[in-house]
Each structure stands twice: as C-alpha cells, then as structure tokens.
Specification:
five-stranded mixed beta sheet; three-stranded antiparallel beta sheet; alpha+beta; Aldehyde Oxidoreductase, domain 3; flat; 3 domains
C-alpha cells in the first residue's frame, strides 16, 4: 500500500533522477514519430509535401544515408554529453561539496538537452525502418519524417554548443556559490513573507504537549502540511514538530508533540505520521538550512591543501553573514494556518540562530584557525551581523559566546605579529559596536595562551 510518505519518497527519487526528463522526451518523440508515420501519406500532407518538395528527399539511398549519419552523429553527441555530466559531477564532488550534486543533477536544462538527443535518435530510427518497398518496385520514403529528423539533428548541434557552455558555467565555484546564495535567500524570504502576511505570536507551551514517537528511522526532510492540517482539523488536533529539518531520527524517537494524548488511538497516530517525509538528499527547496550548509562546506573545501583557495572561502563567509542577518527576521517557531483562520494547526521548530551559527561556522573556524586572512574576515562577518542584531539581545549573546571561542582559537594558533595586529584591529571595530563586550575580547586575545 502506497502511503503519502512512500509516494513522496518515490516522487522525489523519480524527479531527482538524471534520466527523468530524458525519458519523458524520448516517449514524446516516439509518439510524434508514430503520428508522423501515420500521416505521412495522407492526402492533405501529400499536397503540403508538393509545396515544400525542394527540401524533401526523393531517393531511398539519400534518405538512408541522411538518417544513418544523423543517428550516428547524435549518438556521439549523447555519449560525449553524458561523459561531460559525469566529469562535472565528479569535479563538483571533489572540489566543492558532495551535497551540491543533487542540485546539479536535477538541473532541468541539462536533462532537457540529453532528452532531446535521445528523442532525436529514436525518431530517426523509426523513420529509417519505415523506408520500405511498396510491392510494385516503388519505395515508400517518409520524406517529411526525414526532414524532421534533419531539423532535429541541426537543433541538436545548437543544443550541444549550449550544453558545453552551460556545463562549464555550472561548475565554476563563483556561479555555484551565487546560485546557492540566491536560492537560499529566496527560501528565507518566502518564510518571512508568509509570517508577515499572517503574523502570530501567541505560541502555546509545547513542553506540556504529548510526545508522538517516530515509526521510521532516517533524516526528517519535510511534511505534507496540507494533508497533516486537514487531519488536524478533522480531529481537532494541533501538532508541533520538535526537531529541525534534516534531523536524524530513529524508531521511537519523540520528534512530534500533540496537544492531545493519542497513545490509545493507533489509527489517527499512524495517519499523522504517514504525512512526514524521510530521505537522504539535501535540497534547498526543502529548507534554507541546506543552502547554508552547502555554502559552509564549500568554504571548508576551499581551505583544503589540495585546493587552497582562501578567496572562495572569504566569499562564502560573506554570504553566510548576509543569510544569518536575514535569519534574524524569522521566528524560531514557524507555523501553518492551512485549514484554519483562528490559530495555526501546525507548528514547526526552526533551526535557531545559535544552531545555524554553530553548524556553519564551526567547521570553518576549526579548519582555518591558522589562516590570519580568513579569520580576520570571519571576525568582520561577525562584526556585520552584530551591527544588524544590536536590538536582538539573544542573538547578540550567541554571537559573543561564539566570538570568545574564535578568539580562543586564533590566540593559540596565530603567532605572526602582523596577523595578530590585524585581528586586534577587527576586535576594536567590534568594540565600537558593543564596547564592554568587545573590550573583553581584546583583553582575552592579548592574554598569554595557556592550554587547557
């Protein structure tokens, strides 16, 4: 039996496959070839063929030659293009982050090009096998089909040029970062827009709600909010998702809370749990947190000895700072008003500012703490966030707690006087925003390091 959860998993797996759109286009070309073959010798089409006779073949030998050349050529383009895709994916995994691969694989433009190649091959093959004897010495030549095959071949050449340009453009680290930044920012703005359109701040005390344990292990990636809210409305329930998106759950883990005790109502409990989606891949369209993680991982990868690209790391750090500033405008608990006008039926735990700060800057801090250039830019990113979060006491406290960890690391890892002076200058700039706390950081940095 296919539950909503299983259908969602299968749907995501199908759409994420590199062969999804090529398969659809191949079927479409096959159907078009059958239609062309059926109409090739109809009277209206015959009159039209007389009108464009100058571009139609009238020889069996020419038709076979054209179609054979087209089939061989487009197969070569297809093989080369698929090889290019594999090379790009391998380079992206080695030089950027394995988590950016789902986004590259599902890029529709590349799949549509490959699908057009496959469809053109199928179409030309069907036209080739339809060149046959009429029984009276004459040959039935699908002249219109050969013309379409020729047009598809010419279009394939143009698409090949586009494909080479697009694939080389897609693998450039600046373009990957820009796409991640743009998509992540858009996802955050969508949440901000929804919360502004339907503001709500009367959140209940979730600690008193009843736990609902998971019946499946895996990474929690999403929920069918419409289906879930419909069930909540039907049974007068409210649900709180107590874990952040991407959290790994095991069977029996209480990742949900409900305002009513459903321990004795197995049917309703199973119906609610079937609305939740679990899979491994990370798509920014599921949650903006995945975009932040991928940008952070690109920064860490850029600092590895094999790549050694601190400029990319600094650009990624700047993007993270902008996105974290935008996160300040999102409530720590998201909500959905679907099927309800009075109050939300679904509450969702958002990854907190403190969690995002730790998850995305800790790998960078640990990997780049000996690099004065990168750490100065990390401090500058924190200075910019502090400037925008000056009226948010909780975020300010989180930033300074983390700044203390950064200062502790660079104090023990960077000994060059020039680099240390640049760090002091950046800490002084932070002190201009928050004087007392900033001065404490400077004092901490100047103290003699004593291993704990």
């Amino acid at each position: 039996m296919f539950t909503p959860r299983k259908l969602a998993e299968k749907n995501r797996e199908l759409i994420s496959s590199i062969g999804f759109y090529p398969s659809l286009l191949a079927v479409a070309f096959f159907v078009f070839a059958l239609i062309t073959t059926a109409l090739e010798y109809a009277a209206p089409v015959a009159h039209f063929k007389e009108f464009i006779a100058i571009v139609l073949v009238d020889s069996e030998e020419n038709a076979r030659t054209i179609l054979s050349v087209l089939i061989g050529s487009i197969i070569s383009l297809t093989v080369f293009s698929f090889s290019m895709v594999m090379i790009v994916l391998n380079n992206a995994s080695a030089g950027l982050s394995p988590r950016v691969l789902p986004g590259l694989i599902t890029r529709k433009s590349h799949q549509l090009v490959l699908g057009f190649y496959l469809g053109s091959i199928i179409y030309a093959i069907i036209m080739l096998i339809n060149i046959r004897s009429m029984g009276d010495g004459e040959m039935a030549i699908p002249a219109l089909g050969v013309l379409f095959s020729l047009l598809f071949g010419l279009i394939s050449l143009g698409l090949f040029v586009f494909f080479i340009h697009s694939i080389s453009h897609a693998i450039q680290v600046d373009n990957v970062l820009n796409d991640l930044f743009k998509n992540t920012k858009n996802e955050m703005q969508n949440i901000i827009k929804k919360q502004h359109e339907q503001p709500f701040d009367g959140f209940p005390d979730f600690s008193s709600w009843h736990n609902l344990p998971s019946t499946k292990e895996g990474y929690f990636k999403g929920v069918h909010s419409g289906k879930l809210c419909s069930l909540c409305q039907q049974h007068d329930l409210k649900i709180y998702i107590a874990v952040k998106q991407g959290f790994f759950t095991v069977k029996g883990f209480p990742f949900l809370k409900c305002n009513k005790d459903l321990s004795e109502d197995e049917e309703i409990r199973d119906a609610l749990l079937s609305c939740f989606i679990f899979y491994v891949e990370e798509y920014i369209s599921d949650h903006y947190r995945y975009g932040l993680t991928q940008i952070s991982e690109i920064a860490v990868k850029a600092m590895s000895p094999g790549i050694n690209d601190p400029g990319t790391a600094v650009k990624a750090i700047d993007m993270l700072s902008i996105l974290l500033i935008q996160r300040l405008t999102i409530c720590d608990v998201n909500y959905s008003f679907k099927h309800s006008q009075k109050e939300p039926l679904l509450y969702i735990h958002e990854a907190s500012f403190d969690e995002l700060l730790h998850d995305n800057f800790t790998p960078i801090r640990n990997y780049a703490k000996t690099d004065g250039y990168v750490m100065v830019n990390v401090l500058e990113a924190f200075k910019n966030i502090l400037f925008r979060s000056s009226d948010n006491q909780q975020a300010t406290e989180s930033l300074f707690t983390y700044l203390e960890a950064i200062v502790d690391d660079v104090r023990s890892s960077i000994s060059n006087p020039f680099d240390r002076q640049r760090i002091i200058e950046m800490l002084e700039a932070i002190a201009k925003i928050k004087g007392e706390r900033g001065e404490a950081l400077i004092t901490q940095f100047k103290q003699e390091y004593k291993p704990r």
